Structure formats: C-alpha cells, structure tokens
Amino acid sequence: MKKLAVGLSAAFAVICSPAHSASTIKVAVAPTFATAANDIIGAFQSYYFTTYGLAYNVTVVVKGAQQIQADIIAGSTYDLFLSSSVDQPYYLANNYPALVSGSLFNYARDRVDLFSETMDVTGGLPSTLTTNLVIPDPTKDDYGVAAAQILGSSPWNIPESSIPGGYVFTKPSVGSSFAAIDLGSLVTGGRIQQAGGALAGLDLFIAA
C-alpha cells in the first residue's frame, strides 16, 4: 500500500531523492499554495536536471484540503499532501495511519492582510469599526477563521457567533472577499451584492 507524506512544509526537495528519479511524484496541494508549489517544483526539477542530469516528473493536483482528504480515504494515492489547514493532516494521521508515512511537518507560514481601496490602513485595523469590513466565511475558509480570531481579540472583541453582523460581512472565500472590494459591492439587507463601477459599501478586507 502506497503511503503519503503529509505537510502542514519541509524543504520541498525532501519528498524524494535522486534514487527515485524514475518515479512520478504526485503532489496534492490546496489552492492557496498552488502557485508557490508550482514555482518550487519548477526550481526543484531544474536543479536536479542541471546538477545531476536527473529528470523528475512531478504531477500536481489542486483541490481543497477537505476534498483531498476525502479522495485519499476513498483510495486516491499521493506522495505528498500540502494542506492549508492542520485539521486534515491530523485527521488522516490519527484515523488512517496506514495511509500516512512519517511525521507531519510544517512547510510554510502564512499571514492575514488588511486591504482597502478607499482608506489608509497602514496603521492597521481601527480599534473601533465604523466602516464595513468583509472577511472570508469562517465556517468555510481557514483564513476566515484567522480573521475571526483577530476580530474576537482586544480591542474589537467581536465574537465569531456575531459574524456576519454589524460592520462585519462575509464572502465564501478569499477570492470572493477580495472581489467584493476590488470590483465594488453594495450591502443591502445584510447581503453582499456586486455593483459595477466604483466601490460602494465595503471598505475593508481581511484575508490571506
């Protein structure tokens, strides 16, 4: 039975050694790390071909972490799983240890950013919210969870149970949250609706 290494990242090159150059390395990666992963893979392949004359074949599958977890349990095989959350790797390691090789490892650090088209946010998020803010939905997105944790801390003290509510609105993902700011949107009846042209309604965005 083929086992996979699960990442929460080590140096990417440790997924294989020159002795395995004839093999295809199959990597499952969450969308938020896909671009970086492809850049690293390209550098990895270039290095081993230029230095050792070895041509590695690396296949990348980009899916959400929950879907990758479900695929692995259902029988899909990967050599490396780069997850956007610790939940899925820990679940696989604890409940399906026969499918996991070695120990879990951290492979990257991310951050939460504050963005606005209309306000100066170089000083950070205002201690008292007086304008509308959109974050990824904490029930659907790991960055939304991080953003909600920030909003739940001092001085904002906004409980997650109150999100969305007040000045805080949600969109399903980082991309749709950014689009609500970048493309312009209206807030009507507690729901975010896109409006063409200039920004109207949402001024701040917290995401990755």
Task: Describe the protein's architecture and organization.
By secondary structure, the chain is α/β, with parallel strands linked by helices. The protein has two domains: 5-99, 3-Layer(aba) Sandwich (D-Maltodextrin-Binding Protein, domain 2); 113-207, D-Maltodextrin-Binding Protein, domain 2, CATH 3.40.190. It is built from five helices and ten strands. It has helices at 31-52, 65-74, 87-95, 142-152, 174-182, and strands at 5-7, 24-29, 57-62, 80-82, 113-115, 133-136, 168-171, 185-188, 191-194, 204-207. The strands form three sheets. The chain has a four-stranded parallel sheet, with helices on one face. It is elongated and about 60 Å long. The two termini are 36 Å apart. 28% of the residues are buried. Residues 8-22 and 185-203 have low confidence and may be disordered.
CATH architecture of the largest domain: 3-Layer(aba) Sandwich
CATH superfamily of the largest domain: Periplasmic binding protein-like II
Encode the helix/strand succession as letters: EEHEHEHEEHEHEEE
CATH fold group of the largest domain: D-Maltodextrin-Binding Protein, domain 2
Shape, per Cα inertia axes: elongated
Distance between the termini: 36 Å
Q: Poorly predicted ranges (pLDDT <50, ≥5 residues)?
A: 8-22, 185-203
Q: Note the total helix count.
A: 5
Rg from C-alpha positions?
Answer: 20 Å
- Provide the β-strand percentage band: 15-25%
- Total strands: 10
Major sheet details: 4 strands, parallel
| Sheet with most strands: strand arrangement | 1-4-2-3
Helix percent reads 25-40%
Counting helices, strands and paired strands, the structural category is: alpha/beta
Q: Tell me the domain tally.
A: 2
